[in-house]
Specification:
It contains 13 helices and no strands. The protein is mainly α and about 270 residues long.
Amino acid sequence: MNGFRLLKKAFYEKRWVSRLFFFTLLLIVWEAVAAFSGISPLLLPPVEQVAAAFWKGMVSGTLFLQTVFSLAVIALGFCLSMILALVLAVASRLSPFMERMADTLTAMAHPLPGMALLPLIVIWFGTGTPAVTIVIVHACLWSMLLSLLSGMQSTPALYTDLGRSYSMGRLRIILEILLPASMAHLLAGLRVGWARAWRALISAEMIFGAIGATGGLGWYIFKERTMMHTAGLFAGIVLVAVIGMLVEELVFEKLEKSTLRKWSVGAQKEKAS
């Protein structure tokens, strides 16, 4: 009984426990449907076939190298997007002209699908890593910028008034008050940007083909689909999902604990009280 209570407590208090539970439950349902529904393995392979395809790809080194390559490209595009979002957000707070420009660019570019820009990107940058990086930047930048601007605008005026009372300049107020107070919004934008980066990478590689020496996970999924190797196709999809959960737990959860709970507006109010 005590063991059940501990498991129940861990399920509701530790996010990774509940995610592991539902992921395992999904695998069980998947295996049951594949085994008893009569669906062809070409359409829905059993879990063990997918695991075998994953293991084969990792042992051969191909899938491992493609995973590393995809993560490197996403990291590059993600970091560039974050830097550009920070620069535009700070500039928009310093200058009314830049604020209007950022607002116009966001209104124009945020609804624009990256795939609509692919013909122009191919003409300008070809089909290599720079082109895919630009697609990722376009996919991530605008959601990050919108979240950051929203966080700055929703910061109570009391905080900026306090900064002025201490003779802080506009740039110091932005960097030391508005940005820390916008951590909740920024973290939300980073999470959305991370998801969109994966979508952009997979879509771009399925259209461009292999980039770099081995290509990335998008090329792996496309190649497995072309060869009708459904187990490998599912292995690539599951790998993307698992990487997403791991990054969520190991990166964003840590960021939330180390920054959001320390610098957010709510945390500042608790300290003040």
